[in-house]
Amino acid sequence: MKAAVVTQEHKLEIWDVPVPDIGEYEVLCKICYGATCAGTDLRLIQGGHPRPISYPTILGHESVGRVVEVGKKVKNFRKGDLVSRVGAPNGLRPELGVSWGGMAEYGIARDHWELRRIGAPNNLWDKYRVNQVIWPGIDEKIAPLIITLRETLSYYQRLQIPEGSKVLIIGSGANALAFAMFAQMAKCQAIVLGSAQRRTHFNNLGIVSYIDYKEENRKTILCELLGKRQLFDCIIDAVGSSSTVNETLDLLSENGVIGIYGWNDRANSGIHTFSAKRSFRIYANGYDEEEAHGAVCALLLEGKINYRVWYDIEHPVALEDIDRAYAALMRHEAVKYLIEM
Predict the structure, then answer these.
(1) Is the CB of residue 247 less than 8 Å from the CB of residue 168?
(2) Sequence-distant (≥ 6) Cβ neighbours of residue 252 within 8 angstroms
(3) Between helices 289-301 and 145-158, what is the axis angle to 10°?
(4) Which helix (H) or strand (E) holds 98?
(5) How far apart are the C-alpha atoms of 228 and 188, rounded to whole Å?
(6) What pLDDT was estimated at residue 301?
(7) Cβ(185)–Cβ(305) under 8 Å?
(8) pTM over the 0.90 mark
(9) How far apart are CA 155 and CA 150, in angstroms?
(10) Is 179 helix (H, G, I), strand (E, B) or coil?
(11) What is the pLDDT of residues 210-248, one digit of tens each?
């Protein structure tokens, strides 16, 4: 099969690799589509990922695939199911690593429900909880977006932001778009500080309070949008640039919450607590994709998500041309690209 591999020289190439074999609790999936990620994927390609990576490696963590073969002890998947977060496993070639492995023509999913039921050790099933059956009626081309949406929805819900709150979202990428949408769904006032070229994307979601992060008077404009004597109940940093958080920290309400979701500058991240005028809390418990899977599927089927804001479903990029998509992503020409396997 074909797979997109980041080489030791941080070049993206298409390699021929073996189709994976499956274990008795696994299913083989023909991967249909994947979505690019401007965070994780680009850092794998550019060599700036915060975790140790063994190169060469197959990238991709936002892929979906149809079950074509079922292991003999699998109870919760069946042929034809569309499954999330499938990817090639380690060991396809001796020198080849895997960074989730979703940008390949075949991948595996594991029956984590059955392994839990029989009391198997956590390390055999826990990370496979991302393998979820996508609800019937959801288009294969839309399905890769579920990964971004359920990550961010889980994170947003865990922040415990009351309905009607005032929320500042820092960033204008795929995750910031999702946070803004979920804030709006919760009848919150969402103000976004992001790139000028992405304003239209947020406007298409109904977000009108948008400030160019390069605007010299951004703090003054922010206060005007917020309103006199009003404060933010939550600041979500979808980029990971603590300087912007520190700049706005004095606008956080008593016991307001900060969620630093992005990790653009994780090594140098630091919040200047004395920039605050009130006590606040920092959320640091991440997200759980499994817990938000059903809610995201329901929102898609109910037509409540404008998925076209994230990527163009009519013009997917072929796997063989995936380097072109990532090059365009580096130039900020799109939020995401849909890759057809």
Answers:
(1) no
(2) 231, 232, 235, 258, 276, 278, 280
(3) 120
(4) strand 97-98
(5) 17
(6) 98
(7) no
(8) yes
(9) 8
(10) helix
(11) 999 999 999 999 999 998 889 999 999 999 888 899 999
Burial class (CB in 10 A: 0-12, 13-18, 19+), 121: exposed
Amino acid letter, residue 48: G
- What tens digit of pLDDT does each residue of 50-104 get? 778 889 999 999 999 999 999 999 999 999 999 999 999 999 999 999 999 999 9
- Please give the domain boundaries of the chain with CATH numbers for all domains: 2-137+313-340 (3.90.180.10), 148-283 (3.40.50.720)
Report yes or no: 78 and 37 within 8 Å, Cβ to Cβ. no
Residue 182 pLDDT: 98
Q: Across the strands, what pairs with 65?
A: 31, 83
Q: Cβ distance 330 to 324 under 8 Å?
A: no
Alpha-carbon gap, residue 189 to 81, rounded angstroms: 39
How far is Cα 313 from Cα 307, in angstroms, rounded to an integer? 9
Q: How far apart are CA 178 and CA 184, in angstroms?
A: 10
